[in-house]
Specification:
Radius of gyration: 17 Å
CATH superfamily: Aldolase class I
GO molecular function, one term: phosphoribosylanthranilate isomerase activity
Order of helices and strands: HHHHEEEHEHEHEHEHEHEHEHH
Number of domains: 1
Protein name: indole-3-glycerol-phosphate synthase
Strand order of the largest sheet: 1-4-5-6-7-8-9-10
Bound molecules: indole-3-glycerol phosphate
Structural class: alpha/beta
Catalytic activity: 1-(2-carboxyphenylamino)-1-deoxy-D-ribulose 5-phosphate + H(+) = (1S,2R)-1-C-(indol-3-yl)glycerol 3-phosphate + CO2 + H2O
CATH architecture: Alpha-Beta Barrel
Strand content: 15-25%
Enzyme class: lyase
Shape: globular
Number of strands: 10
InterPro entries: Aldolase_TIM, Indole-3-glycerol_P_synth, Indole-3-glycerol_P_synth_dom, Indole-3-GlycerolPSynthase_CS, RibuloseP-bd_barrel
Helix content: 40-55%
CATH class: Alpha Beta
Distance between the termini: 46 Å
Largest sheet: 8 strands, parallel, barrel
Low-confidence stretches: none
């Protein structure tokens, strides 16, 4: 069994358990549930750099990336660096993240926050809104077309932006629908962990221009970004390249400064 299948099985158990412990109505009463959101896709459209910087402690492919950095320091650092948004892993088992990380980031910066999670149930979308997320990720590889439609429409009704992630043409074909704001191409195959920026380049021509195009994973240089921009990419999701340093905010500052030159 590949790692993605395993993650989804565990996630199903986790969500079923949580549903029993915390009824959805509890989330609907939290203050952020009614609060307004900041649009990540609009920020990206208006930006010349388009960096979405991620907070990621570990991953199944790399194990520990950074177990010292505090999410509040990183949120403040990323905001100062001038990123367009911050992506926060909330999966605990495989990525060492938590919903508390997102809440903490929300308290320390005004950046649009993307909840990076393996969403398989509408419950997680209500939860995302309630903890202060501005955008959610939907992964085509683990969802049916019907789920993508239902989940993205629910997110839109809550004013959350939707980033739909694909890895191949088949996933892209089943996913294109008006309730999505951003289409992300993951350069990392979540089943094998192979990384290639060519994935973004080949799939770009199949993505209609009305979606904000984002290239995700394995981006570690200015040259990589410059090579992707001609393919229409407006957003670049970067995790490890910043998180592997002692000071991710500083790494993002240097990176963005250089990108602007
Ligand atoms: O650390 P990287 O290679 O810069 O990648 C960041 C981000 O794209 C990656 O964490 C990611 C992209 N899609 C995902 C889906 C689930 C978990 C993680 C991800």
């Amino acid at each position: 069994m590949n790692i993605l299948d395993k993650i989804v099985i565990d996630k199903r158990k986790e969500v079923n358990l949580k549903k029993e412990l915390i009824p959805i109505e509890t989330y609907e009463q939290l203050p952020y549930f009614e609060a307004s959101t900041t649009s990540l896709s609009k920020r990206l459209q208006a930006s010349t750099t388009g960096i979405i910087a991620e907070f990621k402690r570990k991953s199944p492919s790399k194990s520990i990336i950074n177990d010292k950095a505090l999410v509040e320091d990183v949120a403040i650092g990323y905001e100062k660096a001038g990123v367009c948004g911050m992506s926060i892993l909330t999966d605990e088992v495989y990525f060492g993240g938590s919903m508390d990380d997102l809440i903490t980031a929300k308290e320390h910066c005004r950046l649009p926050l993307l909840r990076k999670e393996f969403i398989i149930d509408e419950y997680q979308i209500i939860e995302a809104k309630a903890i202060g997320a501005d955008a959610i990720l939907l992964i085509a590889a683990i969802l049916t077309k019907t789920q993508i439609k239902q989940f993205s429409e629910l997110a839109k009704s809550l004013n959350l932006d939707v980033l739909l992630e694909v890895h191949n043409a088949e996933e892209l074909h089943k996913s294109i629908m008006p309730s999505l704001d951003m289409l992300g191409v993951n350069n990392r195959d979540l089943k094998t962990f192979d990384v290639s920026l060519e994935t973004s380049k080949t799939l770009s021509q199949l993505i209609p221009d009305d979606f904000v195009k984002i290239s995700e994973s394995g981006i570690s240089s200015i040259d990589a970004i410059k090579s992707l921009q001609p393919y229409g990419y407006k957003g670049f999701l970067i995790g490890e390249n910043f998180m592997k340093t002692d000071n991710p905010g500083k790494a993002a500052t240097t990176f963005i400064k250089e990108l602007k030159e």
